[in-house]
User: What shape does this take?
Amino acid sequence: MHRIKYAIIGGDMRNVYLAELLKKDYQYVEIYGFEKSGRPWADKCAPLDFILDGAKVIIGGIPFVSENGFISAPLSKNKTTVSEVIEKIDENSIFIAGKLPDSVKKQLESKKVTHVDIVEREELMVLNAVPTAEGAVHILIKELPMTLMDSRILIVGYGRIGKIMAKMLQAFETDVWVAARKYADIAWIEAQGLKPVPMHQLARYVSDMNAIVNTAPSLVITREILEKTRSGCLLLDLASKPGGIDFKAAEELGFKVIWSLGIPGKIAPLTAGDIIRRTVYNIIEEEGGYNR
Assistant: This one.
C-alpha cells in the first residue's frame, strides 16, 4: 500500500489503538478528539483544518454521531458538530465510520465523498463476535452463583455471536441450549453437539435455565416467556437497541438483567482497533486503492 494521509476524527479507545496500529504500518496519521485518552501524543488537538487537509481516508467513531447530535468523541475535551467535519473533508476521499445517519450520508454525497458504514461490513461483524462472546462469558462467570460447568445456559439466536459463544461455553462443559427460528440452524445446532430449541417453543424450556443470553436483534424474551422463566435466572442481552428482552416486565418480575452493548470496545479495544484497521484496508482495496 502507498503511504497516504489518514485522519481519525473522534471515537473511543478502539480508534486510539487504530491510530497506533496504522502508524506501525508506516501510515501518515493525524488524529482529532483524543486529549483525554491518556496518550502523550494525543494531549494536544490540532485544528480540524490541519487534520483534514489532504486526508484521503477519514475515519470516525462507532457510532459517528452521539446522542446529543455532535460527533461521538468521548475522549475529547471539545464538542464538534458533524457539519464542521464534513465541510472540511476533501472531495474524492473515503469516509469510514459506524451507524451513519442518512442526513450525514447525504452531506457526504453532496461533496462527492465516498462513505462506508463500517458496522455493515460482514468481516468486521464476524471478527467482533469473538470479543463480544468472550465479554459475555466473562459476565456469566462474574454474575452466576455457580461454575459454568454446573450451569444450564440458553443462547437465543444462532447468528455470528451465538455460534462463537456456544462453542466457548462448550469448552467449559456448560449444558448449552440454543434457540433458533430456521430449521437449518436447528440442524446445525444439533450437529455441533448442542441442544436445539425451536424459537416458537421457547416458553417450554426457560423454566430450567440458570442464564439466558439473547443475541437476537428483536423482542423475543417477552413478558409471557419471562413469566415461565426460572426464578433467579440471569438475563444477559447482547443485542443492539432496542434489545431483545422486555426490560420493564423483567424488572417487575424481579429478574436481574444486564444489557451489555459495545463489548469489543470496552473489554478488548486493541483487538477491536485491529479489526477496524483490517476492515479499513479492505474497503480501500475495494474502492480502487489510492488512485483517486
The mean pLDDT is 94. The domain at 5-118+268-286 is CATH 3.40.50.720 (Rossmann fold).
